Amino acid sequence: MSLQSADVAVWLQANPQFFEDYADLVAEIFIPHPHGGRAIPIAERQILTLREKNKLLEGKLGELLQFGEENDQISEKVHRLTVALLQCSDLAGVLGTLNYHLQESFRVPHLAVRLWGGEPDATLSEFGAVSDDVRVLANSLNTPYCGPYVTDEVIGWLGESAPHLKSFAQAALKTDGQPFGLLVLASEDPQRFYPEMGTLYLARIAEMASAAMSRCLD
User: Domain range holding 203?
Assistant: First the structure.
């Protein structure tokens, strides 16, 4: 019966003393270099393997550190927005503050808000007419939507830039679980808001905006 490579590997794992009993033999065994060229001792091959694993670990650690720094930056921006919203005394101030921070701090090029709760303020475009379909949409958004699609009605809120927009984020504005508005973000970049992106911070921004607005609508 011929031995297979897997059989040898299993036997060596079960008999680690082999490497001690035949240390001289192991030192004399040469195997191909992983990147071609000369043959190298097993020990050197193990060192190369460890170096490659270390490079992979260093790369992953670098990614984690980068993500951590990016999250810290976003958290700081969300914090500044929260403080600014707390300082607003009326709905116009809340809307202006939200617009400023999303565009200046978060670099969102286009956004729109529509409201249908409380006493409408005719001086604010955010109280423009909305269809039942938009209200149903807001009610269905348990989490923010990100992707390439919005209804014709929603995209119409974004004015002259609408034909050039490629990606969108939509988050319901709610109080006590009931929607009273819709927040829409948009970009010409098709990858700015994509379906697989995380929406934690967007959800938090929508919650903070909802709290600030509902306080002014009561």
Answer: 89-217
Q: Identify the domain boundary among 69, 87, 105.
A: 87
Query: pLDDT of 148-194, one tens digit each?
Result: 999 999 999 999 999 999 999 999 999 999 999 999 999 999 999 99
Same domain, 56 and 68: yes
- pTM of the prediction? 0.71
Write out pLDDT tens, residues 109-140. 999 999 997 778 888 999 999 999 999 999 99
- Tally of domains within the chain: 2
Q: Are 67 and 138 members of one domain?
A: no
CA distances from 211 to 23, 31, 73 (A): 71, 67, 23
